[in-house]
Amino acid sequence: FTGIDMFRSTVTVLGSGEVAMTGEGGSTGNFNRGIVLRTGSTIETENGGISLTGVVQGTNASYGSGVTLLGSTVAQTGAAASGAIVIDGSGGGSGIYNTGVTMDAGSTVTALGTTTIDIDGTGVGNGYGYGVVIDRGSTLSAVNGEVAVDGTGGAGGNFNIGISLEVKSSLTVTGTGGITLTGEGGGTGVFNTGVA
């Protein structure tokens, strides 16, 4: 099961208020996820920080994900904003495709002002345990803040990639900020790369 599941829903906080969500996925079977923001869902603040933390218990089998953004938006909209956007996900399980953080289907994480964006994902399992996946037109963008992505691949099998930047994904800083990617591959087989 999924700890927090949003579909075409919106959470908005004005002023300096913050949003913090913590979700824990299930412990049996497949497709257990900590947090899922599905198509059309939005989490936004004006000047306050945003924190999304998702974990999946270790007894999950396969296809678990700590945090999944699927055609959704996470944004800090105030030009004077300074709080951080932090997305932290850890996939659990002994099978395959247990990822930390997944951004897919044109998802966006956007920060104005000096806000930093920090994405931290840890994959697990026995193959295809991606730490962070940014795919299919998904974007991270900031103005004067830093964008940092830190991903660690799973420990067993093949294709345990720390950070995977896939089809038409992009990371952009338009002002004085910078971009840092830190990826560590795992596993005992092949294609276990840090950043791909």
Indicate the overall shape. Answer: globular
Percent of residues in beta strands: over 45%
Tell me the Rg in angstroms: 16 Å
Give a short account of the largest sheet. 6 strands, parallel
> Based on helices, strands and strand pairing, what is the structural class?
mainly beta
| C-alpha termini separation | 30 Å
What's the arrangement of strands in the largest beta sheet?
A: 1-4-7-10-13-16
Task: Describe this protein's structure.
This protein is mainly β and 196 residues long. 0% of the residues lie in helices and 46% in strands. The protein has no helices and 18 strands. It has a 6-stranded parallel β-sheet, with no helix packed on it.
Task: For this entry, give a set of tags.
196 residues, six-stranded parallel β-sheet, 46% strand, globular
Topology (elements, then pairings):
Blueprint: E1 2-6, E2 10-13, E3 19-25, E4 33-37, E5 42-45, E6 50-56, E7 65-70, E8 73-76, E9 85-90, E10 99-104, E11 108-111, E12 117-122, E13 132-134, E14 139-142, E15 147-152, E16 163-165, E17 170-173, E18 179-184
In short:
This protein has 196 residues and is mainly β. Helices cover 0% and strands 46% of the residues. It has no helices and 18 strands.
